[in-house]
Amino acid sequence: MIRGLFVEALGGDPGVHSARYAGRDGDDVANRKHLLDSLASHPEPWRAYFECVIVLIDSQGEQHHFVGHVAGRIIDHEEGTEGFGYDSLFVPEDFDKTFAMMSPQEKNAISHRTRAVDQLRTYLTQHSL
């Protein structure tokens, strides 16, 4: 599974390096700080999206990709206490609160991971491997 936060103003960074954006020894707090520092010289709004890709290799060796995507924006300060990673900085489209302000059930209903897993589940129910 590949996943990450992609920020347009940063050319797609941190992308697949989201978990270690602030460096190898960084943590969520350091990653969020580094993200905001990196965005400071760029004009808002800071468009971004979370993406999760699940790859299934079937018995014939064919690859099947399932992509979950949630578009939104990065805000200039943290809001909320739920979640992890960049959740306190990310506001999904059509919402007025960050992932970190949502209940786990509310976030999971729209998350990029859920969307990718739902596609995989649909594929598996329609195909015998």
Describe this protein's structure.
It is a single chain. The protein has 129 residues and is of the alpha+beta class. 26% of the residues lie in helices and 27% in strands. It contains three helices and five strands. 26% of the residues are buried. The protein has a five-stranded antiparallel sheet with strand order 2-1-3-4-5. The longest helix has 15 residues, at 112-126.
Summarize the structure.
The chain is 26% helix and 27% strand. It contains three helices and five strands, in the order E-E-H-E-E-E-H-H.
In which order are the strands of the major sheet placed? 2-1-3-4-5
Radius of gyration: 16 Å
Number of helices: 3
Strand count, sense and barrel status of the largest sheet are: 5 strands, antiparallel
Mean pLDDT: 94
Spatial shape:
globular
- Number of strand segments: 5
Secondary-structure class: alpha+beta
The separation of the N and C termini measures 19 Å
Low-confidence stretches: none
Q: How much of the polypeptide forms β-strand, as a percent range?
A: 25-35%
Helix content class: 25-40%
Following the backbone from N to C, one meets helices and strands in this order, namely EEHEEEHH
